[in-house]
Amino acid sequence: MTEVVTGEAVVLEVPCARFPSRMLSFAIDAAIQLTMIFILLAVVGLSAADTVLDKAAIQAIVITIIVLSLVGYPIIWETATRGRSPGKFALGLRVVSDDGGPERFRQALVRGLATIVDFWLFPFIGVPALISSLLSAKGKRLGDIFAGTFVIQQRLPARRAPATPLLAPPELVAWASGLEMSGLNDQTAAMARRYLSRLPELTPGARAELGERIAAAVRAQVSPPPPPGTPTPTYLAAVLAERHRREHARLMARPAAAPPAWAGPAAPPAWAGPAGTAAAPPPAPPPAAPASQWAAPGSPAVPAMEWMGAAREEERAEPVKPIEPVQSVQPTEPVQPGEPASPPAAGTGFVPPQ
Questions:
Q1: Is the pLDDT of residue 48 over 80?
Q2: How many CB atoms are closer than 10 A to CB 236?
Q3: Phi, psi of 157 (to 5 degrees)
Q4: Which of 24, 154, 302, 329 could anchor a disulfide with 94, C-beta 3.0 to 4.6 Å?
C-alpha cells in the first residue's frame, strides 16, 4: 500500500504492483511482441524474394518493424486503454500518474521509449528495471521515474468475510429504540455499512474524516441525535442495528399469504332440527315446468294453448249476470239551530254530527 495525494488534496491508499507480477506481465507482452516481429519479418522476406529490393530498403523495413513492435506496442495499448497492455490486463495491473489520475499519451510515450533501456538494451536485459524497482518505494522502473507514473494492482483477490449482523452497543439500546428513521434511505444505510466493514483497513485520518461525513448524512435523516460523546462508529452501528431489527420484526409480523384453494360448488347448509339437532333437510321443491307449459292452479299440467282454450269455452257457457244499479244517496235536510237531529236513514251508515 502507498499513499497518493490527489489534485483535491485527498489522501488515497492504493496497492502498488509487486515486481514478480510486473515481470510476468512483461513476459506476456514480450511474447506477443516477438511473435509480431517474427510474422512481419517472414512476410517481408517472402515479399523481398518476389520483388527487386535493394539491401538498404530491406534494412529500413526491418528496423521499422522492430521499433514499432517494441516501442509502439506499449504506447498504443497504454494510450488506448488508459494504462493497460494485454499483459497488465491479464494480471490486473494498470499504469497511473503520481497523483492517481489516468496515464496520458506523453507519459505513455516516455515509458515506451525508456523500455529500450529498461528491458531491450543488450547485454543489460532487464537489469536497470530490476535495480530501479528495488530502490523505489513504489516499485518504479526508469520509465516510470521519467514519466511520473507507477503501476498499481487494480484487481485484488476477493476477501469474503462472514456476513455477521450488526449489534447495537448495550449503552445505546434504549436510545436506539426510540429513533425516528423513516427518512433514512437505502443509499445512506449502505454507505454506512460499507464504512463499518472497511473500518480496519482505513488509516486513522481517513477513518475520522470519512466517518464524520457519513455520520452527518445519517444525522440529517435520523432523529434524535446521539448522546454527547458517542463515537462515530458506535453511533452508526446502533442506527444500523436498530434498522435491521425493525425490518426483521416487520417481515415476521406480516402473515404469510396462503395460496388460494380451489373452491368447488358450495354445499347446502345443514338443516337444524329442534334443540339444535341436525335433521334431514326439507325435500327440494319439484322442478319448475318448462316455459312452454302452463298449468292451472290445482290441475295437472296441460299445454298452454289447451288451457287457454278451455278457459274461453267456460266463459261462453256461463250466463252473464246483469249489473245491479247503484242506489243514489239522498241528501239530508239541513238541521236548523235548536232542532233535534233526525235519526239516520235505515240502511245508511251516516251519523250526523251532534
A1: no
A2: 24
A3: -60, 140
A4: 154
